[in-house]
Amino acid sequence: MTGSRIRLLYLQPAPLFGGAERQAAEQASYLPEFGVDVTVMAGPGQAIIDWLEAGHAGKIIHSENFPGGGRPRKGLRRVTLPYHFIELGLRARSQIKELLAESPFDVILASLPFAWITGSIVAREAGIPIVWRAGGYYINPVQVAGMWSLTHFLRPDLLICNANAVADTFHPLIPAPLEILPNGVDMNVFNPNAGSPGRYRPPEARFVVGFAGRLATSKRPEDVIALAARLRETQPDTRVLIAGEGTRRPEYEALAQKAGADNVRFLGYVSDMPSFYAACDIIVLPSRSEGSSNMLLEAMACGKPVVASDIPPMREQLDHDHTGLTYPLGDIDELSRLVSELRSNAGLCRELAARGLAAAARSSARSSAKRLARILTRIVVEARAKRSPAERALAVAE
């Protein structure tokens, strides 16, 4: 801790780029304004590095020692996955230790279990606090068992969850002090005037439905494809845009072809998300697992009506019939009905968009980063108070 400023090492595994990665990039950009000097260690994907650099997010370390790089391991190669993760863990631990040796940090903030483990081992060795950030609502029984086992050996000084529903999932498994810190949205980037609609909007479309997220089972892109297949029959001039990547993309493209949903366009990774939202008339989110959804915040900030699955985290962000519409998870009939209702009712679209925009404006990325800075500063001060006089003197000298 130098003067009133603290030094943070932010660990963000990021093979792809989604909500957690965008939050890391936005927070890292704003935290220095509130007395936190940030070094971000992220990777192996390049997209988060590009976002961090664009946001002038302090020192950036592109690490190949987080999982997700290289070709997916399939077939017999999956047998080697445990050894691969152990190897990556040892390398990541060494890299983090080297960073601490070069520039002592006051606190580590770690996102996702891999970073929780590697970061906690180094933090305990260095005698500094570590904060775990959790952002998903659903974990399977195997993950529950793993989490329960892990926290018998490693625990954070603080657990940050981005929604109460996320805390309900993780806090019983991670016995640590808890803070709820919802995600924020950067209204300088995402607003009704941002983006160029023509970049992604199909010229023949009269109405465009958008979905953005990782192409993974937890996001249920198959429901978007099923919706598209129905809209093809009832609204042939409607198009569906899917923004996002994932190892299962070929499977979903094949599913769309099998369903006859030739009104779907897979965009892959989209770097210009404001233009994606500008190209859409409404946004749908059928996920079974979310935390504080960045896509919902960004869509509402861009003035787009949203339709989302009625799961606990969504209820914290959306007020049905007021700031958006919700439907029972997996109910394609109801999802199709709501989308059709929005297409036929321009007045309802405008009302939902206006109220959603007002709600998003109350959840700014800057205010979220400001609160995170206060939390981290408190953790550092509390940790310093527990040190011996000799340890305090050494910390002052550093």
Could you please describe the fold and organization of this structure?
The chain is of the alpha/beta class and 398 residues long. Helices cover 44% and strands 17% of the residues. It contains 15 helices and 13 strands. The strands form two sheets. The protein has a seven-stranded parallel β-sheet, sandwiched between helices. A six-stranded parallel β-sheet has the order 10-9-8-11-12-13, sandwiched between helices. It is globular, with a radius of gyration of 22 Å.
How many domains is the backbone divided into? 2
Tally of strands: 13
What's the story with the biggest beta sheet?
7 strands, parallel
- Note the beta-strand portion: 15-25%
Q: How does the helix and strand content classify structurally? A: alpha/beta
CATH class of the largest domain: Alpha Beta
If you compute it from the alpha carbons, what radius of gyration comes out, rounded to the nearest whole angstrom?
A: 22 Å
- CATH superfamily of the largest domain, by name, is Glycogen Phosphorylase B
Q: Could you give the distance between the termini?
A: 8 Å
Q: Count of helices?
A: 15
- How helical, in percent, are the residues? 40-55%
Strands in their spatial order, largest beta sheet:
3-2-1-4-5-6-7
CATH topology of the largest domain: Rossmann fold
Order of helices and strands: EHEHEHEHEHEHEEHEHEHEHEHEHHHH
Average pLDDT, rounded to a whole number, is 91
CATH architecture of the largest domain: 3-Layer(aba) Sandwich
